[in-house]
Amino acid sequence: MRQLNITWCCTPWGWIAIAFSDRGIVGLTLPRPTRDEAVAELAGKWPQAKLIEHRLEGLKAELDRYFRGYRVTFEEPLDFEAATPFRRAVWQEVRRIPWGETRTYREIAAAIGNPKATRAVGQALMANPIPIIIPCHRVIYSDGNLGGFSYGVEFKRKLLELEGRTF
Fold this sequence. Notes:
This protein has helices spanning 35-45, 57-66, 85-95, 105-111, 118-126, 153-162; strands at 5-11, 14-20, 25-28, 50-51, 103-104, 139-140. Helix 4 (105-111) packs across helix 5. The chain is 35% helix and 14% strand. A hairpin with a 2-residue loop joins strand 1 and strand 2. The protein is built from six helices and six strands. The N and C termini lie far apart (45 Å). It folds into two domains: 5-66; 85-162, Arc Repressor Mutant, subunit A (Orthogonal Bundle). The model has no long low-confidence stretch (mean pLDDT 95). It is α/β, with parallel strands linked by helices.
């Protein structure tokens, strides 16, 4: 069994916790009001994880820059060991969406070779454990509507506005 760890950082929008293995990032919270709240969210999913403060300093700096409105390309490796092949394909495709751009659920389904799987794409994105790095907020409905978001549509709108998009 792989060792999981949790670290954290403070951004202009709040505290973020990051779960990681020796292979890459496993989970990430969106900003929370306190460090304890962010860490508890991931510790609840991975209770065996060790808390380690001083790790992933480059990623922490990138997250801070992102939430200050700077264009960031997250290069940190991701650990998809627990994901199904379909979810991996969706998440890898969504990770390719550039800053400030959007794609539709239909476009993602077609890009992974399964054009009729738009609902399944939505389900895979709802299960996305690494928001921001896998920018599921950049996926919208074909009619331009924002669609759903696990953390609320208003938060999705704020993230897209941070990246220069308006709706």
